[in-house]
Amino acid sequence: MQTSNITSGNGGKERLKIFGHLGAFLTVAAWGSSFIATKVLMEDGGFTPVEVFLYRFTLAYLILLIFTFKHIRSNNWRDEFQFLICGICSGSLYFITENYALQYTTAGNVSLLSALSPIFTTLLMALVFRARIPNGVIIGSVVAAVGAGCVVMSHGEELSFNPLGDLLALSSALSWAVYAILVKRLTPHYSTFFVTRKLFFYGVITALPLLLIQKEPYHLYELFDISNPTYLLNFLFLALICSLTAYILWNESMKILGPVTTNNYIYMQPLATMVIAYFLLSEKIYLLGYIGCALVIGGLIIADKLDFNKLRKK
Questions:
Q1: Distance between CA atoms of 61 and 69, rounded to whole angstroms?
Q2: Measuring CA to CA, which residue among 26, 27, 7 is closest to residue 17?
Q3: Of 89, 98, 215, 216, which has fewest CB within 10 angstroms of its CB?
Q4: Is residue 152 a contact partner of residue 277, using CB atoms and an 8 Å limit?
């Protein structure tokens, strides 16, 4: 998907920007709903966190490979090493630390701490590229973060201090921010499909040893049980929508909007989960949830639209 073909003058740039925002929004909507499919596989099917990650990403990788097999290697070894780090940070390390954090701390803590990756992204952008972060982005990020916290707490999730679990959740947020910064240098030189395929490959390869040493039995055969297609349908949703399609849209959005603006959409993930749970699981939305929704959306608008330095000049 080449963004240059969409761009034509200022009007084309605006349409391209809208496409970037839409792609980021659809991605977090998919990721926000993925917890339902993951819950079915892990709690009902007995799949381990490593199995869920590996099976879905392996299928997504193989499908991408069919369409991009003519271009296997990156341009140089430096880029290949960066793809390795990005694959670890956006794949194996991110998902596995987040999933295992749930075993040591509350779901509320994990949801809230994992949603802090946009703040880490903003700070890393300022440190690595010595870039001045606009005041609007900083204020908007804080407002959206508070909103995400309101959404999490509106579910009645318990928030408490659990050092190991909280550290794992923060590690997942930080690893995602590292990926967002490193991939920024790669996206101008490679297609979105190539970048996404590389991320999947290194994510799978680095998580494979954990699967081989797990003591629990493998559950891959259950996906092909024709008498009970529930597991297969949920798995295909995770692999084809939440992994393959969502990552392509996300990487394309980062190419268009940049890592800071795109990663701010992660604040909408708890919001997407709340709304989807309302329609699919009939879970109630309380006042705190509505307040959080308004803060998240307001924070995103502030971060994207307001430049306080320009306002001062006027």
A1: 11
A2: 7
A3: 215
A4: no
Instruction: Give the CA radius of gyration of the chain.
Output: 19
pLDDT, residue 215, reads: 80
Q: Could you tell me which of 88, 112, 250, 108 has the C-alpha nearest to residue 170?
A: 112
282: left (phi over 0), alpha (psi -120 to 50) or beta: left
Tokens matching residue 180: 């967002």
For residues 90, 93, 96, 102, the Cα torsion angle rounded to the nearest 10 degrees is -100
Instruction: Tell me what pLDDT residue 81 has.
Output: 95
Tokens at 290, concatenated: 């509505």
Beta carbons within 8 Å of 116's beta carbon, 6+ residues apart: 145, 170, 173
Q: Please state the φ and ψ torsions of residue 217, each to the nearest 5 degrees.
A: -70, 155
Domain ranges of the chain: 12-313
Closest Cα to residue 268, out of 141, 93, 94?
Answer: 141
**Would the pLDDT of 314 be above 50?**
no
Q: What pLDDT, in 10s, does the model give residues 119-157?
A: 888 888 888 877 777 787 788 888 888 887 787 777 666
Q: What is the pLDDT of residues 209-252, one digit of tens each?
A: 988 888 877 888 888 887 788 899 999 999 999 999 999 999 99
pLDDT tier, 78 (very low <50, low <70, confident <90, very high otherwise): very high
Torsion angle defined by CA atoms of residues 179, 180, 186 and 191, in that order, rounded to the nearest 10 degrees: 110
Q: Which two tokens stand for residue 127?
A: 């440190």
pTM beyond 0.70, yes or no: yes
HSE of 300, CA atoms in CB hemisphere, 13 A = 20
Mean pLDDT for 4-31 is: 79
Which tokens hold the place of 274? 């709340």
Q: Nearest-CA neighbor of 171 among 103, 106, 93, 107?
A: 93
